[in-house]
Structure formats: structure tokens, C-alpha cells
Automatic annotation (TrEMBL), chain A:
GO terms for molecular function: metal ion binding; pyruvate dehydrogenase (acetyl-transferring) activity. InterPro entries: THDP-binding, Transketo_C/PFOR_II, Transketolase-like_Pyr-bd, Transketolase_C. It comes from Canna indica (Indian-shot). The pyruvate dehydrogenase complex catalyzes the overall conversion of pyruvate to acetyl-CoA and CO(2). It contains multiple copies of three enzymatic components: pyruvate dehydrogenase (E1), dihydrolipoamide acetyltransferase (E2) and lipoamide dehydrogenase (E3). It catalyses: N(6)-[(R)-lipoyl]-L-lysyl-[protein] + pyruvate + H(+) = N(6)-[(R)-S(8)-acetyldihydrolipoyl]-L-lysyl-[protein] + CO2. Keywords: Chloroplast, Metal-binding, Oxidoreductase, Plastid, Potassium, Pyruvate, Thiamine pyrophosphate, Transit peptide. This is pyruvate dehydrogenase (acetyl-transferring). Its EC number is 1.2.4.1. It holds the Pfam family Transket_pyr.
From TrEMBL, chain B:
GO terms for biological process: pyruvate decarboxylation to acetyl-CoA. Pfam families: E1_dh (PF00676). The pyruvate dehydrogenase complex catalyzes the overall conversion of pyruvate to acetyl-CoA and CO(2). It contains multiple copies of three enzymatic components: pyruvate dehydrogenase (E1), dihydrolipoamide acetyltransferase (E2) and lipoamide dehydrogenase (E3). This is Pyruvate dehydrogenase E1 component subunit alpha.
Amino acid sequence: MAAALQTAALLSASPNPIDSRRFRLGSFARSLPGTRASFLVVRSDGSIPNSFTASSRSEKFITNAVATKSNAPASSTASKPGHELLLFEALREGLEEEMDRDPTVCVMGEDVGHYGGSYKVTKGLATKYGDLRVLDTPIAENSFTGMGIGAAMTGLRPVVEGMNMGFLLLAYNQISNNCGMLHYTSGGQFKIPIVIRGPGGVGRQLGAEHSQRLESYFQSIPGLQMVACSTPYNAKGLMKAAIRSDNPVVLFEHVLLYNLKERIPDEEYVLCLEEAEMVRPGEHVTILTYSRMRYHVMQAAKTLVNKGYDPEVIDIRSLKPFDLYTIGKSVKKTHRVLIVEECMRTGGIGSSLRAAIIDNFWDYLDAPIMCLSSQDVPTPYAGTLEEWTVVQPAQIVAAVEQICK
Amino acid sequence: MSAFSAVRILFPPVVAARSAGEKPSAPFLPSLAVPGLTRSPLRAPRLGRPLLAVSSDVLSGQKPLGSNSSPSSHAAVSREEALVLYEDMVLGRVFEDMCAQMYYRGKMFGFVHLYNGQEAVSTGFIKLLEATDSVVSTYRDHVHAVSKGVPARAVMAELFGKTTGCCRGQGGSMHMFSSTHNLLGGFAFIGEGIPVATGAAFSSKYRHEVLKQSNPKGLDVTVAFFGDGTCNNGQFFECLNMAQLWKLPIIFVVENNLWAIGMSHLRATSDPEIWKKGPAFGMPGVHVDGMDVLKVREVAMEAIGRARRGEGPTLVECETYRFRGHSLADPDELRKAGKLEILFI
């Protein structure tokens, strides 16, 4: 059934003009009391599809994550078996491929060169490319981020690493004023093809200042694009896409995800920066999440499946702008939304996403949007307290049960 | 105003007297006669030596002409060069006066910061640059833009918010950009242009060392202009460190006009001699009279030469003065006429 819906969605994505009334599956289901997610799929030419082959997928369809075994599609490892690596190695692979491809791509940050990066994302690159291309900077975030922006304006494509995303608070002047705005205030004369990346999020007892979620602080900056990676596959793809983009992109990594292992394709691939990822198609509720919370959601999903629920899990990946197409499709299908994020409740990504869904898909909602976020407190050092400030799988299960009542 | 009196045409062996009559007809030019440069054609010198303009030091006898250096070296410019400098400074002054007129007539809005009085610094440095060199400025950027070659018409249109402006009306007074002329802004917050300038200098070094693009003239140079207030800001010090660390081809030009809006430099700074902060980071720190375009030009030539040869950055402190308030909205009550600082003009 899920595959049928996917194909229906594909057809609506095709360039052929379609009668949109036929695809108002959401309103169709609601008008029949007692029905729950049973649809008739009708193609635009009036026929009912009877086969859903891999060839009917348009290339614009979101690639499935290979994070869960049951959903591993054949196409992502079709030609070769691929190779296994950890997330930080995937980031390095993406970075290295782009540095090989384009000599203007360079890296700057603290300890990125000789030390290989505090999370070893740039290990070995300084030996290969030299100290100027993989630049060890002094501890001056505002200035070396500004330096990256000046370099980006004058023809280079720098990748600036914040050793911890929280340190980029010191670079806020440059990120907000120059990174985000110079393309506009210069009347389009300069582009800023910079990538700002680094680990953020709540780790294991790192203390309040090293556990910040800067995506909520940066989301208002006009002109900035933000993505968050969560698997080795999307980490490499998003890294490459961010470097190739002519816009300033902030790539959020998570401290606890660097050692995730996955098998990724040998052949080159670049993901779309603005696309969300369908992690687990479902029918009953749309769970929107990103970064580390994806794993808490998937853990909760196992429990939910055992209890008879069928959650649809989407890793939004693109934090700014939101992929409202994928999200909207899902909302129109399930009519219930749960957002699970690691940001604080106040002013986080979740609150913006909630507002965007209400603005665009209000008529398709059967229940208020629930948003599970971290508590509005500094992250405590004690492990038990820290656990309580972050959303846990049990809370996700309880929230789904409440939404689906 | 010594910026203009610095340019004197020398008729050996006697200095030409001030010309008596001709007042300039443009209503906004200050009513002073510029000696020697009248509209009547100059007579060719009878002794066969080239016409020279020399800095005021020479004329006041502090530095004899041709004693240590030949007449054609740093302190002197040819007549053609002098006219270029003069035109640039006059254009800068007239432009800013027109901005003031438009603002007070209610045709221009927002924060407009004028450069009156500081023209020698802009002209002295920027007229030595090539098209591929970059300039980074602050909110007081109109004259830097005009000196760098952005058409005055485009800058004025930008100030009126027109699409024909250099930034399509989207930037305004404080955000003058030009990719063709390598003017990298125009920044509203003080200090935030300095890292951008450092980045442009880094690009220049990168192009040379990594991309192996060589320029027979040497590295492309970046000149960063900023004020005395900025010299107490972290970004200034962080960039001095990085620029010297990597020997970047950049010149840090401090336009020390002694005032940061209403804050006197002396009240804000523990050690007010800014040029001294260069050697603290390992780079030369030079102090120059920023009202004398030839002196500024001499220092600029040396600093630009250093940067082109890859010898690294220089910190140049130009003591100058702004004749108007911080911005056109500034009541400027704290600087009173006749105060001590005006004496050094």
C-alpha cells in the first residue's frame, strides 16, 4: 500500500499536467467515516497501476536511507557492493573528492591540518594538499570565518570548520552580517560559496557550553542555507553538495554520530541540499526529525510497530529551507504530525517547522501538531539530568499514542 | 589645508607665489586658491629640469630636495600624476558635499558618513593600486569607491536607492561593492571588513602558491581601511596576527581621525599610538601625516611594494581629521572649533 502511495506521489511529481482533484487523497479519506488510509490510486490517464517497478521511480525521488535493514533498496548498491565506513570517514571522503575535483576548495579551522581535525574529519588532508589548502588557524573564530568569507568572495571555495558548533557563536557577526547578507547588499555582485561545518548537539556529558544547538540561532539569518546530516550516506552526499553550492551553507554534524557505520556506494553521488529523506514510509503519523533524534525516533518506531502503529519517519535534513514538498505529501497522507528535535522548545527548528506546516497544510491536519524538543535549560553535566533534557524514545512513543487517539 | 598646499609646482630655483585671482566657480569647493594650478597654461621651465611637485616637508625646509634621494624618487610626483591626485581628491570632496546637500534637502536618507578632510588617505593609497588589487572599506566608503574607479554616477545612484546604483540600490551608503573594480565593501559594523580583507589577501597568496597563477607584477594586494575606534576591536588584533603569521599581501590603513562618533580616541585607548601595535605582531608600523597626500603616497608605495614582493603586511596609521560629523545625523557637539586637534591640519 505504501508503494502504491509512493507511486501516486511520483505521478503527481511528473511533468504531465494532472487533474489535481483526483489526487486529493487526503480529503477523500476524510469524507468516509471509519476508513483509515485505504485509497484508490488512479493514474492521470484513468488506469490503475498494477506494477511498481524500480524503473517507475523518477530520478527526483528521495533516495531511501540505508540505515534500517528492512528498507535497504537495491538501487543504492546496485552496481557494486560499496564500501563500509564510519560517518566521519564519509565526511572526509566527500571533502577529499571535492578537493581533488576543484583546486579552489580549501579548508580552514582550528586543528584541521596537522592534528587532522578534532573529530578526524580532515585527517591526512594536510599531508596530501599542503598547509595552505588545509589551514590551521589561530583561535579566532570571528576573524577566520570572516577570512573564509573574504576568500569566498574572491574566488576560493573554503570549508570552515568550527571545532564545536558552539564556538561559531564567536563568529556570529561574520556569519550573520557577511556570510548571509553580502550577496544581497552587493546587489548580487559577489557570491559566497562557503561551507561552515562542525559538530553540535548534546553529547555525553560535555557540559552546557559544548552542547548547544546552533541551528536554532542561525535559522533567522537571511541568505544562509542549513542542512543536517545523520548517516554516512547523507553526510558524504551533503558535504559534496554543500561544497558545490554557490550559496553559503551551514552543515550541522552531531558529536555522537561520528562513529556510525554504514555501507555506501563506491560510485560518486551528490545529494540535493533542499530534500528531505524518507526513512520509513507509514500511514498513521508523520514524524519529522533530523540529526541524532532520527535514531531515537527509529528506536521508538520499533516499539510503535509492535504496538500496531505505522509511523512515517522523515529526516528533514534541510533545516533551511524546509522541504515542504515531501513534508506536505506526508501530511496529506497521514494528517498527523509529530516533530522530534534536539533544539530547545523556544525558538527552535521545530517551532518554525510547526508554523510552516500550519501555514501550508492546516486543512489536512486531524490533530494539533506535537513538537517534542529539549528543555529550555542549559544542558546539565550529570548524565541522568542530561538525559532528561533531551527527548527519549519513550516520550516519542507516548506522544504518538496521544496523537493517534 | 595642507592636503592641497602639499601639491605645489616647483619652478626652480624659486617657489611660485600664490596665484592671486581665480576663484573656482563650483559653489561647494572651499574658497582657497591652489597655488600654481590656474587655468592659464603653465610656462615650460627654462632650465630643462622636469616639473616636480614635492611634499610640504621639502618646502618648509625640513627635508632638502634631492639630498638623500634623487628628485624623481618617493617624495616627488610628475605633473600628470599630481593632476590625477588632485582631481581624485577634489572629486571626493565635491561628491561628499553634494551628498550633504541632498541629505539636508530630504532627498537622501539613512546613515550617511562623509569623508570630508580625509581625501589624502584614500587618494594616496588607492591611486597606486592596480585594477586587480582589492580595497575593503567601512561605512565611510563613498570616496574609497570613487578613488578605486567606481563611477561617481553609480555611487550617487546607489545613495538614492536606484537600480542603476552600483549595488542596485540594495546596499546603500554603507555597502558599496564593485566586483569589476575589486571593491569588497562597504561594511556597517566596524572591524567586520578587516577579516574579509584578510581573506582577499589569503586568496591572492593561494592563487600564487596553490593554483600557481603568477603575476609578473607580484601578488595582488589588498588595502583595508578602518578607523581609530576599530583599533580597539578584537577583529583588528586577530587579523594583524593572522596576516603576519602567513605573510599575507595586505596593508592595514588606520584613518585615525581621533573620534569614534563622540568618543575621543584618547579617552578610549590605553596607548593611543596605533602604529606601535604593528611591531607587537611582528610587522612594520608606520605613522604618517594623513593630510598630506604625497607623504601618504610615499608610505603607501613602500607598503604596497612589500606586500607585492610577499614580504607581508604593514600597519599604517594616517593621522587625519574629518571636517564633518561622524554622519550627517551627528550633531557633533563634542568637537569644538579651535580645539587643539585642529591645529595639526
